[in-house]
Design goal:
alpha+beta
Length: 45
């Protein structure tokens, strides 16, 4: 998998992970889950 830049931030009870310069994002109950969900979503593209 190619390296990607992303940011993780808290939005109410969830953590949101969002890639820079691309309209991709995902969320999870923990930081790790949010990042894992983002990586899984990108792998499907």
């Amino acid at each position: 998998m190619k390296p990607m830049s992303y940011v993780v931030y808290r939005e109410e009870e969830f953590f949101v992970s969002q890639r820079f310069n691309v309209d991709d994002s995902s969320f999870g109950e923990t930081r790790e889950a949010a990042v894992a969900n983002l990586k899984a979503a990108v792998a499907c593209i």
